[in-house]
Specification:
By secondary structure, chain A is mainly alpha-helical. Chain A has 14 helices and no strands. Chain A has helices at 2-28, 33-40, 47-57, 64-76, 91-126, 131-134, 136-144, 148-162, 182-219, 222-230, 234-272, 277-286, 290-318, 320-324. The chains are: A mainly alpha, B mainly alpha, C alpha+beta. Chains A and B meet through helix 1, helix 7, helix 8, helix 9 and helix 10 of A and helix 4, helix 5, helix 9, helix 11 and helix 12 of B.
Amino acid sequence: MRYLARRLMLYLVAAWASLTLAFIVPRLMPGDPATAMFARFHGKLSPEAIDRLRATFGFTDAPLWDQYVTYLGNVLTGDLGVSVSYFPARVSDVITTGLAWTLFLTGFAVVLAWAIGTTLGIAAAWRRGRWIDTVAPPLLLFIGAFPFFWLAMLLLFVFGFTLGWTPVRHAYASHLTPEASLGFAWSVITHAFLPAITIVVATIGGWMLDMRNTMVGVLGEDYITLAHAKGLAPRRVMFRYAARNALLPNLTSFGMALGFVLSGSLLTEIVFSYPGQGYLLIQAVRSLDYPLIQGLFLTITFAVLAANLFVDLIYVWLDPRARTRSVA
Amino acid sequence: MKAALAALRHDRRALVGLVILGGFVLIALIGPLLVGDPTAQLALPLSPPSWDHPFGTTGQGQDVLAQTIAGARTSLLIGFSVGLAQVAIGALVGTTAGYLGGWVDDVLSQVVNVFLIMPGLPLMVIIAAYLPTGSTTIALVLILTGWAWSARVIRAQTLALREKDFVLAARVSGEGGVRVIVCEIMPNMTSLLASATIGATVYAIGAEVALEFLGLGDVTHVSWGTNLYWAANDSALLTEAWWTFVPTGTCVALVGFALALVNGALDQLGNPRLRSETAFVAEARRHGVDLGVSTPVLRKANDA
Amino acid sequence: MRTVSIAVACLLLCACAPRRDTEPGVLLIEEKEQTASFIRNFNPLLEVGDVRWPATRSMYEPLLIYNGVTGAYVPWLATAYEFSDDHRRLRFDLRRGVRWSDGAPFTAKDVVFTFDLLRRFEALDLRGVWAFVSDARALDDYTVELTFRRVFIPGLYYLAQQPIVPAHVWSQVADPVAWTNPDPVATGPFTEVTHFETQAYQVDRNPYYWQLPDRPKVEAIRFLAFPSNDQASFALIRGEVDWAGSFVPAIDRIFVGRDRAHHHYWFPPIDGGVLLYANTTRAPYDDVRVRKALSLAIDRPLVVKVGMYGYTRPADATGLNDSYRRYRDDAAVAAGDWVGHDPARAARLLDEAGLTRGRGGIRRLPDGTPWRVAIQVPTGWSDWVRSTQVIVRNLRAVGIDAQLKTIDFNAWYEHVQQGEFGLSLGWAEPYPTPYGYYRAMMSSGTRKPVGEAAPENWHRFALPRADELLAQLEETTDPAVEHQLTAELQRLFVEHAPAIPLFPGPLWGAFNTSRFTGFPDEHDPYAPLSPNLNPQALMVLTRLVPR
């Protein structure tokens, strides 16, 4: 329990740090959203209109501390302000268009990559010296060394456009409405397939190698030797004893990998026109849409924190030692 | 140190990695002198590979081979310098936190954890967008968002080494904290530091290419990332001009792969089980023996 | 067995999901490249935000539509217009029998209300009509009269094209500047939003449309979100879009080549123009010799070939594009000898202006400091970026230390509007007559000091003689006088080179005739092809016919 409490503290601090960073960075930069909007209105706003706009965007002449407190209050009630580039839509409205899809795609891809990579790692440890141990890891590492977006572009071009085997854009077929039906679910899966495969292929090498190395370490433990001595089948020893214990260290890096994959999925989304946060962020940055940038950064960070917390909960559930140990 | 070099020499994969890496470093150093101005608009845009232009031309009539070679210098330079800087900062923070312990450790650990958890690319994109474009900005942004990982790893190792006898002996004999860290602890972490530097370099090259692809670097400067930016800008896929982005992407992958191979060999140094296991596996294969599923700890006779 | 049944189930599912994207009667239009998800915003008065395509091109209609190809105003919600004898009052006769999409009748009350809304909320007055209009009044249910503060004939263009909104709906809206108008009530051909998702949306026919039952023959319009130019082009090539208006590289090979019978495009050079703007408030750009020298250094044919895939032609020294061709003065064009590629002469002019070569062959300013030139271009505008790469190399060939600087669009836009730049590529806003073009080029009416946002005349140049000519143009309706004044403006431009014209802007437009016919092109130029023009797209939308 102390372990969980410490992790929770960490996440709260990280959350606060992100909030503050998102507040400070736009204010350090020259210009403000109201000036940007003014330019877009071809200079036709009255001084009162400019002041009203500034207030809407949270840039007032109040002292910085007051602005900060107002900002924190607004965020906690879910008011993330008004977007500049999607004016007059609210930031929360713009963000909700993409958040669910990013989480779905990233989650789907990471779980898939982790599952496949870990299984391959176990297989590699089992069949050491065979091709799956000597050829597959380097090959997968090589493929994974290509930039995310490069792989995405290539896969899209070959399988989407040239061969026509998969859809080429969006999260579901454009004539469907999101609903709880098999047709919609299938459409979602076929559209997520190629983007997810990109992420899987790019990260699988790392998972495999990590799992293999951990397995090799675990296989040297005494209880494994005892299990063999008792006459248990090799397969059983492999999975129920070695793999289960090797999984735990892997799980901790799962959380960190989530953050990494979220970043990489940004590029994947752009290439596949997947309607997630990634593309929204790039556009927001390109238009210097401060309120939207703030909002997106916050949601991405909170998503990563939540995922890490979730992984920690699972870890505590899986590993009894974590409940009694006080230090991570 | 000697053990490290020996490990690298004997490991076939590491050798392959070093050869590839050496090749690229050579290209980066002397290549640009041999190919002339990569930005010269010499020929017909988007022409496929031919004798005149082995990698074809870009959407603006520039020679892709020249651009790939010229790009190597910038990208490798940024990659290595950022990698070193990240590990340097990480070592500073990590050793301080690990050695001093107490509230210093708590505070620094929190800072490290916060930086670890924040998603890198979005933060990088935001910061890079605000600062003036150029290699320095990219480098700064990468260092800022990437130092935390090596700090964590180095801190863990420092904690382990701190309790060793030779460190205690040094402290008892009156050596100051800094001296202990620099002269006693760090020399025993060389393989870890090397491994961390390589890991950081791989990350730096990949992230730099990504940022420049998004157009956040200086697009008039030739580097691997900007080559890919221009390929996308000139609609490489749409016009089916695969030669404009395949060479650069492959180079990035080769460098990353080579570094990963070398890293793998260095990893084995820190995990003797892995090292002896590789030797044992090779030996077993030579004799056609089936291995079973346990890991014996063996050494060859002439290993230290 | 289990795997087989799963596979069969999947196949069945695939078969069951019909591909409604190719439903007959539904026209697929490329809304705008570079948008990943659609926000439901149909406010026609607020184009600076993120407003959906149909708002001003299929929902809300104007009084008249200016057809840039024919040069005439097409009656739309107004059937006739007339200036009073002293040109201080403008009367519009409205069309009878027009109804809003909720059935209510369209009357002069709506027109007056719309203009009044622009007066009350300045942010909505994007055309700045209240600068020259003093009053808007309904003389009866179908006649509107606008009173001008001063004689300003070009004002017709702005007033005629203003989208009209219904008084009975918008009078209930507290803040029309922040209103997204999600369920529009309008007079246009397509007003019923039947399906709106972030990736795609569809707008069906207005059952009360005034041109029914003949037009429109199209039943609905549909839009897919494309986050990049390339994605939009891919869709066009594969026949997933019927009507598009974005830049496509090597279009003959990758688009037309795929289906010569049905894939067509038309890029007439009638859209604004692209110029190299030099900030004339900064030395040495205030010297006309320097501006002309820069122009002589540029290899325009190469710029057009490499930057624009040969889709347009080099500009002449008047800077006029082909939509102004009936105003072009041949004498002025002939006198413009500074738009050819003559690096030797450019070098001589620069030497004359005191910008001599120093160490390393790089030119210095007269006071000896090195002359560094950074040409600003928005990131992602690939054709501009490519063109500027060529220009940078051209300038370096005459000893100028030139560089390309790409900045994000909004930052770039702020810079040029506020005059925080040395050299930048830029567009010229298209107008119905050269009056608007030359006003933006050299009138003190558009010139603002550095630091104040200027929507036009970023290069901040003005000539008193130009002001005189423009003032006269504002008051005349005699075509002969118009031509004479315009000719003199052209000669003035050629003499003083306020900005450096590069090439006339091609108006992008591509279409696919396998499902719909009736698009304008060079064989049938009844209207501009581009779907991006508002309100001109209305003319094409109502003429298209499903096969």
